[in-house]
């Protein structure tokens, strides 16, 4: 059974930090590129950051560049999103996605991040 389980969300003050985790199971994690997306209230889902299956190549949305860092640990089947200098506009549900070489595509259920004073 394929599972992607996000964790680490919560309420944080502006300027604060959070680290999101996405634990994978039920598929070959090390052969899948991983991506974080987010969806704010009444907005469409948007790309945040991605990392290749080896971890050597990363991409980050301009809106979070310099503040968010994506990483992965293939020995733990986990991808991370370190979020620093958080802003109220970062408030959203954050989703983890796995995309494989043969078109496999898996999604987690999301974790809520709220940035507010």
Describe the overall structure.
The model has no long low-confidence stretch (mean pLDDT 97). Strands 2, 4, 5, 6, 9, 10 and 11 form a 7-stranded mixed beta sheet that branches. Strands 1-3-8-7 form a 4-stranded antiparallel beta sheet, with no helix packed on it. The chain is mainly β and 117 residues long. The radius of gyration is 13 Å and the shape is globular. It is built from no helices and 11 strands.
Structural class: mainly beta
Strand content: over 45%
Fraction of helical residues:
under 10%
C-alpha-based Rg, rounded: 13 Å
Low-confidence segments, ≥5 residues, pLDDT <50?
Answer: none
Q: How large is the count of helical segments?
A: 0
Distance between the termini: 39 Å
What string, H for helix and E for strand, traces the elements in order? EEEEEEEEEEE
Shape: globular
Number of strands: 11
Largest sheet: 7 strands, mixed
Q: Look at the structure and give the mean pLDDT.
A: 97
Which tags fit this structure?
four-stranded antiparallel beta sheet, mainly beta, 117 residues, seven-stranded mixed beta sheet, globular, 51% strand
Short description:
Helix content is 0%, strand content 51%. The protein is an all-beta fold and 117 residues long. The strands form two sheets. Strands 2, 4, 5, 6, 9, 10 and 11 form a seven-stranded mixed β-sheet that branches.
Blueprint (SSEs and pairs):
Layout: E1 3-7, E2 10-12, E3 18-25, E4 33-39, E5 46-51, E6 58-60, E7 68-73, E8 78-83, E9 92-99, E10 105-107, E11 111-115
Parallel strand pairs: 2-11
Antiparallel strand pairs: 1-3, 3-8, 4-5, 4-9, 5-6, 7-8, 9-10, 9-11
């Amino acid at each position: 059974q394929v599972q992607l389980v996000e964790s680490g969300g919560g309420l944080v003050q502006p300027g604060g930090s959070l680290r999101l985790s996405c634990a994978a199971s039920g598929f070959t994690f090390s052969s899948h590129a991983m991506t974080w997306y987010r969806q704010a209230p009444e907005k469409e889902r948007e790309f945040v950051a991605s990392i290749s299956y080896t971890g050597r190549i990363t991409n980050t949305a301009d809106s979070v560049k310099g503040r968010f860092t994506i990483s992965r640990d293939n020995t733990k089947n986990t991808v991370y999103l370190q979020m620093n200098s958080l802003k109220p506009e970062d408030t959203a549900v954050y989703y983890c996605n796995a995309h494989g070489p043969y078109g496999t595509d898996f999604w987690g259920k999301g974790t809520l991040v709220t940035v507010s004073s």
